[in-house]
Structures are given as C-alpha cells and as structure tokens.
Amino acid sequence: MGVVIESSKWEPSPSHYIIIMLCCFVSIIVFPYASKSTTTTTTLFDHASSSSYRRFQTSFLFLYSLSSVMEGMWSVFGEFELAYYGISKDQMVLCLCVGYASALFVGSLIGPLSDLIGQKKVCLLFCILHLFVGVWKRIAAHPSFWVANICLSLATSIFLFNFETWAVIEHEKQGHRQEILNDTFWLMTFFESASLIGSQVLVNWLVGSDVEKGIVSPSIPAVFLAMIGIICVTRGWTDTYQTAAIKDYRKSFVTYILGDKRIMLLAWAQACLQFSIAVFWILWAPTLVADGREVQLGVIHSCFLGARMLGSTVFPWLISGRTSLRTEVCLVYAFIILGLVLSIIAYDYQEIGVLVTLFCLFHVCVGMILPSFARLRTMYVPNELRGGMISLSQAPANAAILLILMQRGYYQNIENSTLIAFTALGIFTAACCMHLLKRWGKQPYQNWHKL
C-alpha cells in the first residue's frame, strides 16, 4: 500500500527514520572493531578473500536488488489498483486465493526443478514472468488479474529460494570461507529491504499527483528492469550443475531432507515465519485503520522496511561478535519476541503509536531471522537439494494462507485477532523447533563452512 489516496492524520515523526538509518550505519561501521575475528580496523566488506569474490558478491547483490525492486513495484498500489479496474471485494479475495494456490501447487515444484536444471534457467523464468506481466498490463485495457497474480506468485516463489541457492553454490565452487557467505546473507536482507523502499519511491514518483492516470506507470520500469535482469543473467551467470536423473534426485531428497528430523524442524520453523509475514502484510493496514483511524500507510510501510534493515545488521553481531551465540539460540530468543509481539497485538486494542512500535519490533526480528535461516540451511542442507528444501518449507505456509483466505474472506468465520493469535502460536512452535535443533546438534553435509 505505497500510494495514499486520502488525507492522513497520523504518521511517524521524520526523526524515526533518521534514527533507524543511523542505527543501521553505526551497526555496520562499528562491527569490525567489536568482531572477535577481526584484528585490524577494517570495514565489514573487507572480509572477502579475493577480488574475484568481491566482484561476484557485488554483481550478485546488484541483480538481487534489481529483482527486489521488481517484486516491490507490483505491491505499491495494493487494493486500489484492483478497485480501479472494477474488481469487487469477493473477486479480490478470489485473486489472492488463485495466486497462493498457484504458489502451492506449481511454485512448490519449481524448487526441485531448479536443482535439476540449474538456477540460471529458473532465474530467467523469474525475469520473463515479470516481463510478461509488465507488457500485459501495458497493452491490455482491462488486464486479467488472475493471470497476473499467477505469474507474480510464481515469480515470488522463485525469488524466495533461487537467488540464495545460486549464491551458495557459487560460493562453494570458488572455495571461499563461510564468514564471507554470512556477510552475503545479511546483505541480501539489507539490500532487499532498501530496494523495496526504493520501488515505493520510484512508483510514487512516476504516478505524481494523478493516481488514476498513473496506474499503469509501474509497467514501463518493470519491463525495463526485467530486460536488464535477463541481460545480466545471460551474460553474467555461469550454469550450475545438474542432477543425474529425477529418480536419483527423488531418492536423495527422501533420504537427506525428509529423512532428517533436523531439516524437518528447520523447514517447519521457516514455514511458520513465512506464514506470519504473509498474515502481517494482509492485516497490518486493517489493524491500523480500525475504528476509522486515518494514518499515512505508505510512510509507515517504509518505517517497517527500515526496521528490517536494522535487524539484518544485528545478525553479524550475534554470530561473530565477542559474545557470539549459536544461531539456534539466537533464533529461540527472536521467535519468543515475535510470539510475544503478536500475542500483545491479538490480545488487546492498542493505540497507533504502540502498534507501529510493535510492528517495527516484529520486522527487526524478521531481519535477523532471515539470514540466520540461510546460515542454518548452509549447515544442514546439501547444496544440490537446497531449492527443493526451501520450496518444501513454503508449501505449508501457502496452504495455511489459502485456508485462512477462504475462511476469513468468504465465510467470515475467523476474526483478525484470532488469526493473529493463531500466528503467534505457530511462532512459539518455531521457537520450540529451534530449541530442539540446538539440543540435537549439527553435522553439516558441507565441510568448507568450517574453514
């Protein structure tokens, strides 16, 4: 909801954004002085062991940021775009259901597909899907939002696993140390959040003062960015290996993924996080504007993303600082905080200022959890099965979201507070999963991360 149509009466103070950004940069700049692994005062980005990896990391983060902008541009208008084309509330719910159903039944298969045919081809599919939606919305007077939602849902499914998998595989092929890969993980979350803010600024600038005439404005930059992405992938990526056969892949997946209780714990915790994030983005605006309250939704949205940027900078402090903790322990604490935040929101009516503060704390924890999950996947999941494992963890979240959309959107059987409470319960189970994962220890399939 990046474009605000009505006047607003409440918005965060500009000092809030300044404080968040200052905290981010202070965290990044001061970290090398407090890191137990750093003996000289260098910047965090000097950990790279060779100029070749610095070039790889820079090109990867550029492409990842470009893809993040494409992902964020389509969500700026939100329901306003659907209402502009005459879509009713019931049809909006149906569009969302179709999108999540496609992510559940088709998107879940793209992860194993990327393991089999390589991440390069699947990333090209990601760019082509965005290119198709951009062209479709530009040339069609009344574009089918069912088709658009299906394409964008599949693109989002690819975005959630393909880039990370490619980065890890290239890291292993080049033989670099794991601490550099850890830097890449939190930088992905940091740049993704910054790019989402940039996409909101870009779309609002293109729209200008006439929202109705500018409703198709995102289509032009989306097509342009998708074409740049295709060029970057085609010329800059090297093809990854292929699994010998589908039968062998299925056997390996059953043995090393479904047969490993530690990976199942990690997958369930990841599914609970994805479900909570999806529920948040569905309900945060209705929660803030309850009882007729008027707020500046677009500005608050940027505040949330800034909080997630801040959370991502906490990750290197937790794993490499002088008082570093095991990743599983950090996640237990983070999930408990998330569960408490959601419980407070579900239990009682809150003032806008309190709600925004709780929502920001939610995103700080999410910003720390995302790179932590990526690190645990590197420790437990074989690279050749990584895409399939992440797709597996997305399936329960997509199924649960599809269920609540039908129950809440059509039958009105679930109240918002009940849904948030159910989400909090799932987060607490994720904390239990991380506690069990810590007790059962770790035995990584890859040995290079110890170097």
Architecture overview:
This protein is mainly α and 451 residues long. It has one domain: MFS general substrate transporter like domains (Growth Hormone, Chain: A, Up-down Bundle), CATH 1.20.1250. It contains 15 helices and no strands. The longest helix has 30 residues, at 145-174. The protein is globular and about 55 Å long. The protein starts with 13 loop residues before the first helix and ends in an 11-residue tail after the last helix.
What is this structure's SSE topology?
Layout: H1 14-34, H2 51-73, H3 79-84, H4 89-117, H5 119-139, H6 145-174, H7 178-207, H8 219-236, H9 246-258, H10 261-288, H11 297-320, H12 327-347, H13 352-380, H14 386-410, H15 416-440
Helix pairs in contact: 1-11, 2-6, 2-7, 2-8, 4-5, 4-6, 4-14, 5-6, 5-8, 6-14, 7-11, 7-13, 10-13, 10-14, 10-15, 11-13, 12-13, 12-15
Describe, in short, the structure shown.
By secondary structure, the chain is mainly alpha-helical. The chain is 76% helix and 0% strand.
